[in-house]
Design brief:
By secondary structure, the chain is of the alpha+beta class. The chain contains four helices and five strands, in the order E-H-H-H-H-E-E-E-E. Strands 1-5-4 form a three-stranded antiparallel β-sheet. Its main location: cytoplasm.
């Protein structure tokens, strides 16, 4: 049974500008394992990755029903890629299954998260 669904649309350049002015921004958004992935990229691809994880975590918090804040923070959610490139939620506060989709255009990243109860 579906517990919740959330979507988000994020401007990639806006996230890139924040990261440029606040170098610790990526550390605030990304878990240690996500930071390892992020550091493999540069330029536009790095901006897309960071914006994608930011947006996916926003979508997750909407699906969870709390938004980002006291109950769920950026470090509570981890999204890593399988060898095929598919993003997978590997750490989360929800005791169920989290489905995540991340899609980019030249300027924006759109994400969707669906939380599914087990059993």
């Amino acid at each position: 049974m579906i517990y919740g669904t959330g979507i988000d649309l994020t401007d990639i350049d806006r996230v890139f500008k924040v990261q440029s002015h606040l170098p610790k921004f990526a550390e605030r958004i990304l878990t240690d394992k996500e930071q390892i992935m992020y550091k493999k990229y540069s330029g536009k691809r790095a901006a897309e990755f960071l914006a994608g994880r930011f947006s996916a975590k926003e979508s997750y918090s909407k699906a969870f029903g709390t938004g980002l804040g006291a109950e769920v923070g950026f470090q509570d959610i981890e999204i890593l890629d399988e060898s095929s490139g598919k993003p997978v939620v590997t750490k989360q506060p929800f005791n169920g299954i989290a489905h995540v989709s991340i899609s980019h255009t030249e300027s924006y990243v759109m994400t969707q998260v669906i939380l599914e109860e087990r059993g």
